[in-house]
Write a sequence for this structure.
């Protein structure tokens, strides 16, 4: 090595060559530039260089061609790659071939100068020790640092398929310790269902100098689970790039196979985000449909329930029709439960949210379910210092019951049902996977020992009307409702299941700092009253039955079939009208617009909002603007009487 080091700059962009030359010239180096692979080879053949700064992508050729020339000519020249296309595989390949270092554009000038200086010092020291033997030397320390800090799993296998090296990323991604895998066969970490595919792939490496890129495989998650330990998954999907390693030809038939090296890149986040985006689009469309169906269905149920209540008012328990009427009332309530499932899936129906102790709620639900399904053994584990959550208790009971029924159906001969609560703190990784805010959450686990599910079933279980039950034995709404309810409360739900190994549902709900509010027992009495009430609804069957219900309760009723008509009626009778029952969904002038017009006329007006849909969305906005209350269709005469008295007496 001469006293003045000679450096060759190779880049197909002349401006980059000029910039690097200007930067390095101040250091007193001998400099020459080249803008093509051909020109670079000519420079190397005609002059001696201590160091080459080498771009990788140069038109149809690449910098590796220049490096191959350096190696084939046994030139005593150090190589540093500089590129804007720095994938991990590229860096590994460059260092494996013998490059000293690797810089990614853009870089700081001081970083380049220091790297060049270190490289030349390295070359000088090795030259002084007389250990150069015609091969390019590369920095083992830098190579090791890059490999061990790569987010990808980097590995080498011997000719038998046993690990001779695997990077530390395997610990973070799969939960395996590096020491566990040393000398073990690669099939140790291959997911069972992909074993044949993996064997074919790695055996293919033996038949020639071939490279496989973009191959997808599933790897096992160790018991510790790596970064996925909270996600209840047993495999990780990776994209594999592998190449065979060969000695020089030993026979005329070809090269001797020495093993395989490759890179495994985690695809779980990308795949999950893609799946969640597609799932979210499907669920949004289905949710809109489900909400519309529920709204219209609830209006019909309101007509049936209202007329049933009117007839029951004139019948005592000895009347021969009394039992039939009570049965009709019960059937309507059952039908209303179905629409609750629809509204739950549509992320609606969250009526009364309050700080809640989930331990108490789950204990009560377990006791009631256990009394009806004695073939199921319920086993409980509670975090006694469980954080408070803000939920609609009715909706959470509905979600739990649907999960319990799903478990019961999966255990036709009986079995164990485990419920567990715990406090968890979720970090930003969960935000990536489930689009939630990191922080404190309460986790509810519902685990059964039933038949389990395959992948195809598991991917569809939250879609409405999907069911594995026989026709007539399941609606396919239960789990869709659970999904909607949990999402509607700002949480998320995941499921793990395998055929024959039971199913685990985990629900995560945001924790609250508020104190638990105890429930008040609702009154069981009719609350009759007096005064004038304006009933506003665009459905004639609702105004017809509603008018009669109000009169039976002692009120004088006025009716309007639209928002515009309601404003006209109110302006003519505002001195007499004590309260308004206002439908939320109406054509032309919506419930929200009608409400605002009422408030302009009389800021102190009392309004009870009514809907066959939900309290969320537009209804919640109206309540936030000062509306006095909300009642969900279908409602009974008793429910209506109590809501009216509550608002009129306030």
């Amino acid at each position: 090595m001469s006293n003045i080091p000679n450096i060759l700059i190779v880049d197909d962009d002349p401006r980059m060559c000029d910039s690097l030359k200007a930067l390095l010239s101040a250091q007193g180096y001998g400099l020459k530039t080249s803008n093509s692979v051909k020109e670079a080879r000519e420079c190397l053949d005609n002059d001696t260089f201590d160091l080459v700064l080498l771009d990788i992508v140069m038109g149809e050729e690449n910098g590796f061609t220049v490096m191959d020339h350096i190696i084939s000519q046994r030139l005593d020249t150090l190589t540093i790659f500089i590129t804007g296309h720095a994938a991990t595989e590229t860096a590994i390949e460059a260092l494996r071939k013998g490059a000293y270092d690797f810089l990614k554009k853009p870089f700081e000038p001081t970083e380049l100068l220091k790297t060049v200086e270190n490289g030349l010092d390295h070359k000088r020291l090795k030259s002084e020790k007389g250990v150069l033997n015609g091969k390019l030397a590369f920095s083992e320390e830098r190579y090791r640092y890059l490999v061990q800090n790569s987010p990808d799993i980097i590995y080498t296998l011997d000719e038998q398929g046993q690990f001779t090296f695997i990077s530390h990323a395997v610990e973070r991604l799969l939960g395996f310790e590096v020491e566990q895998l040393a000398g073990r066969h690669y099939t140790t970490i291959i997911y069972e269902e992909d074993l044949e595919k993996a064997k074919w792939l790695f055996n293919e490496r033996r038949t020639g100098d071939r490279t496989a890129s973009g191959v997808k495989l599933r790897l096992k998650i160790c018991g510790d689970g790596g970064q996925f330990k909270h996600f209840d998954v047993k495999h990780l999907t990776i994209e594999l790039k592998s190449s065979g390693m060969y000695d020089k030809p030993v026979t005329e038939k070809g090269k001797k196979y020495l093993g395989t090296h490759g890179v495994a890149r985690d695809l779980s986040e990308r795949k999950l985000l893609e799946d969640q985006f597609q799932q979210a689009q499907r669920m949004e469309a289905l949710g809109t449909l489900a909400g519309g169906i529920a709204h219209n269905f609830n209006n019909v149920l309101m007509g049936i329930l209202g007329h049933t209540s009117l007839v029951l008012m004139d019948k005592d328990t000895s009347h021969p029709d009394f039992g039939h009427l009570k049965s009709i009332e019960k059937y309507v309530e059952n039908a209303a439960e179905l629409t609750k499932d629809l509204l739950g899936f549509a992320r609606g129906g969250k009526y009364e949210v309050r700080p809640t102790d989930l331990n108490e709620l789950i204990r009560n639900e377990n006791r009631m379910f256990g009394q009806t399904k004695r073939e199921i053994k319920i086993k409980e584990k509670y975090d006694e210092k469980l954080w408070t959550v803000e939920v609609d208790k009715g909706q959470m009971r509905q979600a739990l019951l649907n999960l319990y029924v799903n478990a019961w159906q999966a255990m036709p001969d009986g079995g164990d049902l485990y419920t567990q609560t715990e406090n968890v703190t979720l970090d930003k990784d969960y935000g990536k996977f489930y689009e939630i805010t990191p922080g404190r959450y309460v986790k509810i686990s519902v685990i059964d020992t039933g038949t389990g599910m395959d992948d195809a079933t598991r991917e569809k279980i939250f879609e409405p009307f999907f069911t594995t039950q026989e026709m007539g034995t399941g609606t396919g709404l239960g789990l869709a409702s659970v999904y909607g309810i949990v999402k509607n409360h700002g949480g998320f739900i995941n499921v793990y299941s395998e055929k024959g190994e039971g199913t685990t549902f985990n629900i995560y709900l945001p924790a609250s700092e508020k104190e638990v509010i105890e429930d008040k027992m609702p009154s069981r009495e009719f609350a009759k009253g007096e005064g004038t009430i304006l009933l506003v609804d665009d459905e004639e069957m609702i105004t017809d039955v509603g008018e009669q219900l109000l009169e039976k309760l002692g009120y004088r009723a006025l009716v309007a079939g639209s928002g515009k008509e309601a404003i006209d009626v109110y302006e003519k009778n505002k001195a007499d009208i004590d309260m308004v029952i206002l439908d939320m969904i109406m054509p032309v002038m919506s419930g929200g617009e009608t409400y605002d017009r009422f408030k302009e006329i009389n800021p102190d007006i009392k309004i009870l909002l009514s809907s066959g849909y939900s309290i969320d969305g537009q209804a919640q906005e109206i309540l936030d603007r000062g509306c006095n209350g909300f009642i969900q269709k279908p409602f009974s005469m008793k429910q209506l009487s109590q809501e009216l008295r509550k608002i009129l007496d306030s």
Observations:
- Confidence is low (pLDDT under 50) at residues 129-139, 470-476.
